[in-house]
Every structure is written in structure tokens, then in C-alpha cells.
Amino acid sequence: MIRIVKFIFLDILKNKFVLIYTFLLAAMSWSAFGLEDNTAKGLLTLLNIILLTTPLVAILFSTIYLYNSSEFIELLLSQPIKRITLWLSLFLGLGVSLMLAFFIGAGIPILLNAPEDVGYMMLIAGAIISVVFVSLAFLSAILTRDKAKGIGISIMLWLYFALFFDGLVLFLTFQFADYPIEKAMIGISTLSPIDMTRILILLNLDVSAMMGYTGAIFKDFFGTTQGLIISFVVLLLWIVVPFLISLNKFRNKDL
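^ that's the sequence the OP posted. Answer follows.
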């Protein structure tokens, strides 16, 4: 298993797309801090970049890589290798390589410009969100043999979590504005890994006061140790559940 992970990891690191992604992420990160005289403003600018760019790159690149590696996967399965070992090796190879690209591209500027709790939180959250969307990419790729459909599913998942979900939450907020739904919003926010990541970082930036009463509710919950543990467990479930579903389908799939 370790040899397969190492091979996939080195193969991805030599991919030009990953190198370009790392370079662009680094350029945007340094620019975010260079153009702002305030570290907090730079982190807010970088937050928007991370929450849109990182998930999109992770899910698209992973989906395309899986489809392009179909012959390699079939070749390995002709050897005495268990399907669970191969699928897990692919996941680890993709996840670790994209996390490394994120650490090099965004992690170094963050650590140099904001070596404090909010910087560490953004670094951890960015790495986790990368792996979450790698997991969703595995689910997208295993649902259909058609590469175009698989990529389409990946794009739709990203659009839903990055854009449509926020619109849905805004719609519910306006429709039930006369009811005390602030606590229910905590549960609804767990249905999107991007929203969970945004809330965690914004609360560490201490801008929750700008969110009014809802922000106070979020801070009372997510700002505690118990809330942080629950939120990280939820993000972990966003990694594990889609991967386990894809693994179950891969084990029973006729290649």
C-alpha cells in the first residue's frame, strides 16, 4: 500500500496542473497580504480565495485524475491487490499531495504574516476542506463511467456548496425571519463543509459581532472547546462518509 501511495504521490507532484495551482495560490496569498495594511483584512481576502478556489481545484483535479487512471487501476486490480487497499491508496495519494500544494502555496504566507491562532485555524481548515472535496470527487467518479458526467457531477457539487447553499440559507432566513431559527441555523450550517469552515475562521477573526444575534449564537456554540470538537468531527464525517460510500460502490463495481 505504501508503495502505491508513494507512486501516486510522486506522479501527482510532477503534474503541471498541481504546480500551476500551487504557484497561483502562492501569488494570490502574497498579494492578499501585500495589498492590505491590516493582517485581518488580508486573512479575510485570503479566506474568500480559499473557500472558492481550493474546493474547486480539489474536486475537479481528483475527478479527472481518477478517470485518467482507469487503465492503471484495472492493471493493479489484475494483481493480488485488494480493492480497498487500492482505493485507499488513491485517496491518500491525492489527499496528501493537494494538502502539500495548499501548505506550500497558502501555508507559508499565512505562517509568515499571521503566526497566531487564526492563521493556524485557516491553515488547518484549508487542508481539511481540500480532503473533503477529494472525498466528494471519489464519490462523483464512482457514480458513472462517463467522464463528462462525472466531471459535471463534481462541478454541480462545488456550485451547490459554494453558491447555491448560501442562497438557500438566505431564502430560509428571510422566509422564517419572524421565528427564532438562529439555533436551527447551527444545524443547517453543518450541511455544508464550506460554511462550517467559513464560520470557524470568521469566529477566530472575532468579526462575529458584525453578524448580529446569529453571530452571537454561533460564537456561543462554535467558540467553545466542545463546539470546536463537534465542528471538526462534522468536517471529518464529510471526509469519511462520501469516501466510504464510494469505497462500497468500488468494491461491488464490475470493472
